[in-house]
Amino acid sequence: MKLKCVLNAQAVEIDTAPDRRVVDLLREDLGLVGTKEGCGTGECGACTILVNGQPRLSCLMIAAQLEGQNVMTVEELADTEDGAAVQRAFVDNGAVQCGFCTPGMELTALALVREHTLPERTCIREGLSGNLCRCTGYSKIIDAVERATHALVKDEKP
Amino acid sequence: MHLARIEIDLLTGQIRVCDYLAVTDGGAVVNPCLFEQQIQGGVAQGLGYALMEDVSRPLGLVRSNSLATYLVPTSLDVPEILSCAVPGHEASGPFGLKGVGEIAMNGPLPAVANAVADACQKRLCHAPLTAERMLAALEDSHETEMCA
Ligand code: FES
Ligand code: FES
C-alpha cells in the first residue's frame, strides 16, 4: 500500500505492506533505529512512539493503522522545545544507564508533561508504569520528569 | 545495611514496600549521582527477586518465559529509595574505588523478609515472597514456616 502520514513533522508517502509491524517499518525499512524492540508482545514499552501525541506500542501496531496519522519517534525529540527539555533532564539527572528503555521512557514522559503541569511523583509513577526499566530503579527517571516539568513552567513565565 | 518499611495486606497477603534505605560502603565515590542510580537500580532488581520474580519450571519446562509471566518491578512496585554512601577508600582498588554494580541486589530479600518477621512473627523461607506464600503463612498457626 501507499501509506501517507506525518512522520517526525514531515509529510511522507511510504510504500509498504499494510500488515508490516510498525516497529519493523520504522527500524528496518526507514532506518529509525532509536525506537527499540524489547519484548515484541506489548509488555515492556521500549517500542513506544507517539501517535497523535498519545503513547502507542509500535510492536503491536501495523502500518495501515498509521494512515493519515501524526507520528513522532525519539528522533524528533530534540527538535521540539518540550522534548528537548525532557531529554536534557534525563541527561542531567542520571536517568539513563544502559539506555534501552530511554527512547520509550522519554516519549511517554513527553506525553505526560504535555498533559499535566507540575505532576506529583505518584502521578509520574503511574504515567510511566507501562515502561519497564531494569537498570535505574526509576527514581532518577522520575526526578528527571519532575525537573523537566519545572523547567517548562519556568520557561513559560515572562 | 538495608532497611525496608513494608505493609502487608492481611486479606490478600500482598507485601508492599513503602520506603527503603540503603547504606553502602562502596569505596571512594567518583560520581554521586550515578552511584545513587546504581544502588537504586540494584535495590529495584533485588526487590523484584524478593517479591515477584519467579522462574517457575515444572518438569523442567520454563513456564515463566515472557514478561507477562516473569514479572519485573514497574515504577509502581518500587518505592522511593534513599541511598547513603559510607565515605571510604578501598586500599586494594584503583584510586580507592570498589565496584557497586551488583552489591545493592543482595540486601532487599533479607531486608524485606526480616521486616515481614518483625511485622507478624512469620519467617518466610522461600523467595519470592509472593502474596500466596504470605497468606499461607498468615493462616498457619505456627510461628515460622518450616524451612526445607
Ligand atoms: S517491544 Fe513493544 S512493548 Fe515491548
Ligand atoms: S536504563 Fe537500562 S532499562 Fe532503563
Number of helices of chain A: 5
Overall, the morphology of chain A is: globular
- In whole angstroms, the N-to-C terminal distance of chain A is 48 Å
What class do helices, strands and sheet pairing of chain A give? alpha+beta
CATH class of chain B, please?
Alpha Beta
In total, how many domains does the architecture of chain A comprise?
A: 2
Topology, number of strands of chain A: 5
Q: What is the rounded Rg of chain A? A: 15 Å
Terminus-to-terminus distance of chain B: 27 Å
Q: What letter string, H or E per element, gives the SSE order of chain A? A: EEHEEEHHHH
Describe, in plain words, how this protein is organized in 3D.
The complex is a heterodimer of chains A (158) and B (148). By secondary structure, chain A is of the alpha+beta class. Chain A has two domains: 2-76, Ubiquitin-like (UB roll) (Roll), CATH 3.10.20; 78-154, [2Fe-2S]-binding domain (DNA polymerase, domain 1), CATH 1.10.150.120. Chain A is built from five helices and five strands; from the N terminus they run ββαβββαααα. A five-stranded mixed beta sheet of chain A has the order 2-1-5-3-4, with helices on one face. Chain B has 148 residues and is α+β, with helices and mostly antiparallel strands. Chain B has a single domain, classed as Aldehyde oxidase/xanthine dehydrogenase, molybdopterin binding domain (Aldehyde Oxidoreductase, domain 4), CATH 3.30.365. Chain B has helices at 32-51, 108-120, 131-139; strands at residues 2-8, 15-24, 80-85. A three-stranded mixed beta sheet of chain B has the order 1-2-3. In chain B, β1 (2-8) and β2 (15-24) form a beta hairpin. The model of chain B has no long low-confidence stretch (mean pLDDT 93). Chains A and B meet through α4 and α5 of A and α1 of B. The structure holds FE2/S2 (inorganic) cluster (2 copies). Residues 37-40, 42-47, 57, 59 of chain A line the site of one FE2/S2 (inorganic) cluster. One FE2/S2 (inorganic) cluster (FES) is lined by residues 37-40, 42-47, 57, 59 of chain A.
